[in-house]
Amino acid sequence: MSEISAANGEKYEISGTEIKGVNGKTYRITGFDPDSLATKDYVDGEISALTSDDIPYDNSESSLEATNLQDAIDEMAALLPGKIETWRQIQDVVRRGLASSYYNVGDSFEVNKGQSTLIFDVAGFDQDVPITSAAAAGSGSSITGVSVNFSTFLKKTGFAGDFIFFFSGGRWRNQLGEAVNLSAYGISVTGTEAEGDSFEVSIPHTMTLKLHSTELTGDLVFDAPEATWYINTTDFPNGLAAGTYNFTIPSGYSDRGGKTYQFTLSNAVPVGGSVRYVWDSNKIVTYDTVGKASKDQEALCTEGGGGTAMPAVSEERIKRTRYGSCKWSESAIRQWLNANTANWWNPQNDFDRPANTGKAGFLEGIEPAFAGIIKPVYKTTKVGNDAVQRIEKIFLLSKSELFGTADTTEGDAYSYYGAGASDLPAPGVGADSNRVAYSGSTAKQQWTRSANDGSAISANFVMTGGEIQATYASWSLAAVPACVIY
């Protein structure tokens, strides 16, 4: 057993190719021959002394930059958890691909938010796709382009990093020389490959965090009930004049399906305004601008076909008028999660209405050093039968990321929730204590970003027992924000 000092004065024990750090963990440095450490106890086979501080070190198999053992020790010492004191140092650990060596899934970090403290748990490593991920053909290659589904690539490799593929002997090969099927990695190339062609795929290492408790988020509406008509220049070139109007509820929808109602406006609604049928009170309310918080007028609806017919409304539009929209990309909760001011809400479509506006954005008061290392990633969310990929910074987890479904279009289950951590033997919507979120000691229902299959108005949420169900977007439930460091 030998001991070596790092530049910071800490002592590290070396045994073979292992280094025991001050935090009690053992780290393995690859790329050097322990026999080069000349003095050896041949009874138990352990290294007993170092012959030099400048023992050559091959860093090609590690994430270190050092070229000798002493520098490798210094480099590792600077990255040990006990020595990491800033968010930038944590980011550096992640970028080097060393985060999973120093932290475990479920480990927690404290983040200042104003006078309060948020707790974030590690949800997984190398499970997200940074927007800086890239692929490029090598210099002089015959192929003209490389396209990569980075999510498929990560699923195949199991980790991020820099990868080189080359064409040799009529086959594409990885950097170990093994023949590979590019499609299995989500890779396609354009052009005709030739001997010696190559390309590189680069995916930065990541560490994903999710909020531990919901005390400081409270309950939030996913999306507010929307307007029924938008006053556009096509249907209303001069706005909606004062007067009497009628509309018909789509046949077959609820007990009012097929019924016609009329209402009378005392004042005109200008172009750019909106009109909403309030189902519960059977009234019409108008707004002079899209997203205006306070109504400009209201009128009672009565059965009858008097006056001018309003443009026909679809059943989906009536539903969204009652219950809001489950479309994540346009949701109020998505805006709130990524806002750092008190006045954060903006309409995302012509029918949008304000929600959660009494709450300052989630990022308001978050310590700047932490906010500075949260980076955007690509996230896929299904809308009906379509899978839409968008850039997300602060986001909610999807049904599949919570181990809720075998359909992983919206992402694989994070390690925090997946097989071995879950109460369930396979992905499912049943009770799972590992999915339960708490506010203090109280279990809370929490939103996911996933729409309920086939619905325009309901989103999936996690119940207090960890079951996954769906409810209307206009309900108020807790939120468990997630983010990614790289």
Overview of the structural elements:
The strands form 11 sheets. A 4-stranded antiparallel sheet has the order 1-2-3-4, with helices on one face. Strands 7-8-16-34 form a 4-stranded antiparallel sheet, with no helix packed on it. Strands 10-15-12-13 form a 4-stranded antiparallel sheet, with no helix packed on it. It has 7 helices and 34 strands. It has 4 domains: 2-83, no CATH class; 133-203, no CATH class; 211-222 and 325-485, no CATH class; 229-323, no CATH class. A hairpin with a 2-residue loop joins strand 7 and strand 8. Helices cover 10% and strands 31% of the residues. The relative contact order is 0.11. The protein is elongated. By secondary structure, it is mainly β.
